[in-house]
């Protein structure tokens, strides 16, 4: 690990984990100190200018600790698991993840989200101090722009508090040579690729966190819970359709299809200009896993770090899919493109 990456990781820990958790803890301590001055139950939601949701007065600090802490844990898991330093005895053919702008963004968003949630929860509780009935609590909707400003301001500050890490330039590999075949011969190459274990862990954590948020919000009768539940359902569908893909290279061209049947992509041999095997860092080049768009205009199914098949189409578009033995697949497609 280089000193530059070590500084970036340390800054992430402070910006994306330690300070956000400290803000949540500080807000929790303040609300616990206010408990004797609060009505029971307290107002937790306003609609049409009046209170329409209630909860026990101990619920706001508990919800902040659970939801806020869950968000911080989720972002930290994504950043740290996907940028783990290489372990002793690890496969040296897979390039180390290093550190990326995506991790820097996750740290900034974690700080902004935790700060906004802490400020919002303290404001909800603070306006009810000294009231005998929570129904008399003033609507906090006019304060919404201020909450958003706090969140955005902290996120921007979090971004600049973390150093940028330059990604070293990599030499471009040569185009693949066609696989030698007789006129009467045809080659078919097939592989199955599954998202990296780190990606699987992060996706499961994401589903669990959003599910817990949905259950908690719906149990409290908060309308926003239905939105969170819809997001959770969408996330589950995306996870189930993006875990495993089957890749096929043949005289017909390239076909990449999810084990669930969708999504899928086909590139006919007549549309293939060139192919080659490349090395890919999902977060540094594509911002994560799944069907991604790269910073350099490439797109494709990026499921793990390491070897990938890159196909340049006749219209200039470039498609990639991470898969083992990409060199052979590239040669098969190069031969198909010549026929």
UniProtKB/TrEMBL annotation:
Keywords, sorted A to Z: Membrane, Transmembrane, Transmembrane helix
InterPro entries the record matches: DUF1648
Pfam families recorded: DUF1648
Regions crossing the membrane: 12-35, 62-82, 103-128, 140-161, 201-219, 225-245
Organism: Microbacterium foliorum
Name assigned to this protein: DUF1648 domain-containing protein
Residues covered by the DUF1648 domain: 23-59
Statement: the UniProt record of this protein carries the keyword Ubl conjugation: no
Keyword field contains Nuclease: no
């Amino acid at each position: 690990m280089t000193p530059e990456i070590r500084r970036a990781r340390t800054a992430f820990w402070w910006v994306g984990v330690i300070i956000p958790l400290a803000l949540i803890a500080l807000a929790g301590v303040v609300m616990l100190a206010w408990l004797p001055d609060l009505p029971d139950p307290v107002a937790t939601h306003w609609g049409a200018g009046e209170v329409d949701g209630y909860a026990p007065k101990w619920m706001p600090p508990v919800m902040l600790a659970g939801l806020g802490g869950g968000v911080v844990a989720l972002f930290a898991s994504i950043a740290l698991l996907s940028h783990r330093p290489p372990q002793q005895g690890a496969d040296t053919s897979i390039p180390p993840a290093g550190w990326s702008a995506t991790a820097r963004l996750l740290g900034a968003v974690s700080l902004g989200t935790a700060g906004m949630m802490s400020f919002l929860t303290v404001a909800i509780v603070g306006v009810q101090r000294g009231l005998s009935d929570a129904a008399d609590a003033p609507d906090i909707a006019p304060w919404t722009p201020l909450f958003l400003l706090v969140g955005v301001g902290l996120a921007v500050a979090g971004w600049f508090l973390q150093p940028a890490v330059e990604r070293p330039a990599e030499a471009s590999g040569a185009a693949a040579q066609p696989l030698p075949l007789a006129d009467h011969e045809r080659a078919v190459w097939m592989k199955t690729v599954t998202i990296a274990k780190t990606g699987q862990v992060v996706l499961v954590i994401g589903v669990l966190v959003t599910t817990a948020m949905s259950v908690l919000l719906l149990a409290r009768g908060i309308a926003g819970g239905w939105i969170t539940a819809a997001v959770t359902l969408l996330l589950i569908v995306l996870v189930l359709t993006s875990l495993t893909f089957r890749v096929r290279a043949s005289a017909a061209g390239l076909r990449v299809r999810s084990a669930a049947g969708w999504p899928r992509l086909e590139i006919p041999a007549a549309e293939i200009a060139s192919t080659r095997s490349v090395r890919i860092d999902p977060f540094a080049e594509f911002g994560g896993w799944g069907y991604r768009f790269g910073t350099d205009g490439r797109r494709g199914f990026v499921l793990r770090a390491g070897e990938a098949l890159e196909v340049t189409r006749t219209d200039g578009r470039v498609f990639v899919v991470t898969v083992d033995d990409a060199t052979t697949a590239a040669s098969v497609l190069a031969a198909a493109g010549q026929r």
